[in-house]
Amino acid sequence: MIEVLLFGAAADRAGTRKVRLEVEEDSTLAEIWPLLTDRYPGLCPMRDTLAFAVNGEYARMDGRVGPGDEVAVLPPVSGG
Amino acid sequence: MFGIVEEKIDVGAMIGAASRPDCGAVCTFVGTTRVDESGGNSVEYLEYEAYRPMADRKLEEIGAEIRSRWDVGHVSIVHRVGRVDPAEASVAIVVASPRRGPAFEASRYAIERIKEIVPIWKREVWSDGYVWVGSQVGTRQA
What we know:
The complex is a heterodimer. By secondary structure, chain A is an alpha+beta fold. Chain A has one domain (2-74): Roll (Ubiquitin-like (UB roll)), CATH 3.10.20. Chain A has helices at residues 8-14, 29-39; strands spanning 2-6, 18-21, 27-28, 51-54, 57-59, 64-65, 70-74. Chain A has a five-stranded mixed β-sheet with strand order 2-1-7-4-5. Chain A has a two-stranded antiparallel ribbon with strand order 3-6. In chain A, β4 and β5 (57-59) form a beta hairpin. The longest helix of chain A has 11 residues, at 29-39. The N and C termini of chain A lie far apart (34 Å). The model of chain A has no long low-confidence stretch (mean pLDDT 97). Chain B is α+β, with helices and mostly antiparallel strands. In chain B, strands 3, 4, 6, 8, 9 and 10 form a six-stranded antiparallel β-sheet that branches. A four-stranded mixed β-sheet of chain B has the order 1-5-7-2, with helices on both faces. Helices cover 30% and strands 39% of the residues of chain B. Chain B has helices at residues 11-18, 54-69, 100-117; strands spanning 2-5, 25-32, 37-38, 41-50, 74-80, 82-84, 89-97, 120-126, 129-132, 137-138. Classes of the chains: A alpha+beta, B alpha+beta. Chain A binds chain B through residues 5, 7-10, 12-13, 46, 49, 53, 56-58, 72, 74-80, and chain B through 31, 48-51, 53-55, 57, 79, 90-91, 111, 114-123, 132-135, 137-138.
């Protein structure tokens, strides 16, 4: 299992802030994205604007993810 | 000090903590809630959320970047989350340096980097709905 945290507009679009997903060892973020959008199709239009983090650090779509990891879905940041 | 806080930011205390005998300049940047207006509606407040502890760590990273680029004696960056009412501070940056140049430059750098890399999001709550800044997602009719 991984825990996926959603923030800001992504949490709005999905209607949830946290979801657990079953993933295989040595998955990638690119493989996890369709699992998320199957469940929350409202996220689809945001795809090109989103960044991702794995265990609290920015990660690319080919970044590795496995059981026990925390993935965060990050819309464009707007602090300040 | 670097980090996310939920309470009002005490800018005076931050400036006090930055004052040192080896620095002749203390530069402070404070970002506050501005009331925008459009079509007879206006912003009532801003609401911020952060991904912690990543956001705290990214603020520390910005501090480390500043120390590697400029001769500064003190850097602190604090960002508030939750509801921030008009004219209240959402973010405060205080930099002390021996001379004024680095303090001005580093404080500007800090706010620009916050807007690039720190996982914090704001929602403008208007009289007629809300909108997530940067995503244009919300309940407000454009």
